[in-house]
Amino acid sequence: MRDAYAIELRNITKRFGKVIANDHINLSVRSGEILAVLGENGSGKTTLMNMISGIYYPDEGQIFVHGEEVTIRSPKDAFPLGIGMIHQHFKLVDVLTAAENIVLGLSGPTRLDITAVATRISKLAAKYGFDIDPFKKIYEMSVSEKQTVEIVKMLYRGANILILDEPTAVLTPQETQALFAVLRNMRDAGNAIIIITHKLNEVLELSDRVAVLHRGRYVGTVETAQATVESLTEMMVGSKVTLDIDRPEPMDPEVRLVMRDVTCVNPEGVITLNHASFTAYGGEILGIAGVAGSGQRELLESIAGLTPKESGEIDYYPPNQPMQEISKLSAVEISRMGIRLSFVPEDRLGMGLVGSMDMIDNMMIRSYRKGGFFWADRRAPKTLAEHIIGTLEIVTPGVSTPVGKLSGGNVQKVLVGREIASSPTVLMVAYPVRGLDINSAYTIYTLLNVQKMRGVAVLCVGEDLDVLLALCDRILVLCDGKVTGVVDARTATKEQIGLMMTHSGKGGGH
Amino acid sequence: MANLHGVHEPLFHISKRQDYSLPLAIAVRLVAILLALVVCGVVIVAMTGLNPVEVYAGIIDGAVGSSRRLWVTIRDTLALLLVAVAITPAFKMRFWNVGGEGQVLIGATATAAVMIYLGDRLPAPALFALMIGASLLAGMIWGVIPALFKAGWNTNETLFTLMMNYVATQIVSFCIVFWENPAGSNSVGIINSASKAGWLPPLFGLTYGWNLVIVVVITAFIYIYLRYSKQGYEIAYVGQSVNTARYAGINVKTVIIRTMAISGALCGLAGFILVSGAGHTISTTLAGGRGFTAIVVAWLSKLNTFTMMIVSFLLTFMAKGSIQIASQFSLNENASEIITGIILFFVLGCEFFINYKVEFRHRHREG
Amino acid sequence: MAAIIIFLQNAIRQGICILFGANGEILTEKSGNLNLGVPGMMYMGGIAGLAASFMYERAVENPNPAVGLLLALASALVAGGLGGLIYSVLTISLRANQNVSGLALTTFGVGLGNFFGGSLSKLAGGVGQISTAVTASAFRMELPVLPQIPVVGEVLFSYGLLTYLAIAISIVLSWYLNRTRQGLCLRAVGENPATADAAGINVSLYKYLATVIGGAICGLGGLYFVMEYSGGTWTNNGFGDRGWLAVALVIFARWRPLNAIWGSLLFGALYILYLYIPGLGRSTQEIFKMLPYVVTIIVLILTSLRRKKEDQPPESLGLHYFREDR
């Protein structure tokens, strides 16, 4: 059958414990076609692709490759079928060279002729226009170099069905364009390509067809040519969403936090924050936009006293009190001085909370120091936990259930609830609605607005520009650790911010 | 599709259990111990041709058969328990302190040194205070050295503490040269055998009364320390997630060093108990592998100090019992280690069935 | 001169035993398994080799050295491999903690060795001292002619079969790890099992094979001690702390088998150095015996200070891998 699909999935279902990650999904892609799999974070895209590449095994359903039903028990079964997957987190061994990583796991003569491998790699790279040094160790490479290694690895293996999991999340626009060019070449050479993404503009620019997932369910597939941003959004979120986020006018904003010329360098010696300066006001929400890894984390952590600063100054203006410099202070010293600074980090269960501990112990992350010398107070945190469960409508069997067992939305409510419980004067949140369902997301927006109206300076790092534009008062844009500008969220456009997130933009302020 | 190829599916499927159930956990462990005893029985028959039932009866007799044997078993249980409790704070912090053996030895050496050099010069209270202080300090130093490097440069603590054990062993050998009695025996003999200076006296008429009191107090203290104190919370946060600890404003390095100081010091105190409260001598084999066995005890008890009492007793029971059967049947006393090893294998392996579910896939077969 | 030659010979004799253990453990650790059961597996290999040749020499009127040698060799390999297999089942299939499982294996193996070593003669009907002179002589047989070359011959060629086998294993292991496809796969498994899995490598199989074969090689270390070093006799706990020295040597060699060769020589030399330095008191001798461990600690510290990626332990060392872990 010539017109058989390169890959066809029928009724694929995968459960993790009680959670259904994929619920009877159908999907197909032809050779010589780029299929975009679109969905919000947590909609089951990656799980689905992991079943094609053999990382997971489906609980139910069938997979057909070129019309034949196949069983893919492990990645070893996927390779001979020509299936290659490029994961979001690169699957590369750090201490090995590019060539060693590329040839890893391939059969052949026992003795490994690495020079011959390198020659073949260089040929492949020349053909597609990649820049790659086969003898460079992975740990010496930049992110985009590593991605190149991943793609060459698949080509080297003769993959003709390529799956890319959010490949552009870590790339600059130039690198993204280069990647798209390669992908188009590969499509034109007759390969089937699946690209997982949640960025609509990329879907429209690159793909031939779009399959949409929503909360683990299959919504449908459309021809890209007939799709629009609006129609895709509607499919993606289930029902039409006008981002109807409430944005009250700021009430007499006053200066709360001033950052001047702060530079941070990570342990590997890379500059992560480059002479960043800005002012945050009490009573407003300051959005922070940027491509992933542009220094958002360091910006927040340097204020919180969690990341050492190379240089620069951070001044804190408490309400009705004289200014205090907090640049040199650690997190403990900041809290000891009575500065009520709250922080909802991006990594909820790896940093903000401990998944294996119950709610009381997690409340105590902030409060265990209170009280006498020896004993830790468990009574107040227990009251707090019960209070948060009540007010934020957290679904949990009780305060003694490990928070790791709660759903993503409830985990975030626990974390945000704890952080606002101390009536902060500065509230920093990173990706507060990532992976949350719509209802939970709106709960979080409301909580942030309540804090704003209380005169709190809210700093909100986000990835969805639509949300930032609807929620924030001003938006600070980061690019490569530099502040490329601060714009008024009421008048700015996505295109304007998008430009500032890349080097091409010369935004306002700084 | 009508013809499903069930044959292509993997035979079974392993997934994490969502809910922990206590009855299941107890049942699985009991089955594991029973299986282990059956396997040990088979091994005993295969090796010796003896009746395993008789052998097990001999073990029970050897461990608790007389008041004296019972007390020796209790004494050794206490020593093992103390080491297990001592290393628990480190393990709670996910710091692999495999150096309990060395920390015990160095604490014992410090105790013996005080007994030998000052035993006849100081009044008993001062002498005991000094002995305890010296053992705590020595163990602390031995624990803090690897911790400093772990905190500062992330030096692998498993390997570091392991090596420290043998440095401690050599220090004991070194000291024995000076302390040997009688000369040329290459052993220290009973210290202060005449004056009994520095020997823990009986308490409430019990020979090992002080041992009991000290170990029970420390066990209870560590239980409270880990569960209810601020420092206990810091240890738990560091152990669960260094990132969270950092976020909570905890100075991770300080906690690592402080916790290993406590862990090492308490191991040193176990050295004091072994010298002052039990053997009244010192040798390179004084710790007797307790530093290693204690790791197994702590791990199998899931770091619960009360469970450790039971596990320590069981392991000591087996060891003491086996020594008895060894002499009864003129076998070698190392049989106990084989039996202990087999039991450990089963108990370690059975945890899998408590934490994971194995499901066999049902095949779709028609007709 | 003669003293130096004897010193070197004895250093090599001490070192080879450790080298076997280190080779086995390097192979094991390269798969990501930190097996602290090395002492146990060495005891198991030693006693199995001894018991096999003992039974054989008792059962046959005129025992043939070659048969005794092969039997002992096979038994030691099987017993050491069995130790590795127990560890593998526990840590790979049943996901038990590696450190604890390794220590349990050491308890078991050392007990097994001492039990049989101490009871063998009684079990055999009270024949007194165990001796397997015939088999041991086969293990101690030197090469023809070469040992007679002055100095070079004495230092390099005056040993039995196992000595050269140990060095051969190091060389083959080094070649295997660095120059072959399977070796590359094994390194990937130890560094990053998820990546290896995604590359289609059977992670569990590699871990099993590396650990079992590693155990078998450790078993040869025990056999060397019993046969070539001790001449076919057993002393309880006579093996001392050589098993842990082997673990130390792995660190010292920074997981490279070729480094382990000269490292073993150095360890052997440090181990006996006190006997050859004139004028040492007994106490100072004890301090000298500390040297291998102190040197290892220093190497461990230096490698962590330098943070050179290539010198670090395999990245997944001590962790187990479960594909569907989320």
What does the model show?
The complex is a heterotrimer of chains A (510), B (367) and C (326). By secondary structure, chain A is α/β, with parallel strands linked by helices. Helix content of chain A is 33%, strand content 25%. The longest helix of chain A is centred in the middle third of the chain and has 16 residues. Chain A is globular and about 70 Å long. The C terminus of chain A is likely disordered. Chain B contains 13 helices and 2 strands, in the order βαααααααααααααβ. Chain B is globular. Chain C is mostly helical and 326 residues long. Chain C has a single domain, classed as ABC transporter involved in vitamin B12 uptake, BtuC.
Search tags:
heterotrimer; A: alpha/beta; Rossmann fold; 3 domains; 6-stranded mixed beta sheet; disordered C terminus; B: 367 residues; mainly alpha; 13 helices; disordered N terminus
Explain briefly what this protein structure is:
With 367 residues, chain B is mainly α. Chain B has helices at residues 22-48, 52-64, 67-92, 100-118, 124-153, 157-179, 209-228, 230-240, 242-247, 252-279, 290-300, 305-328, 335-355; strands at 12-16, 356-360.
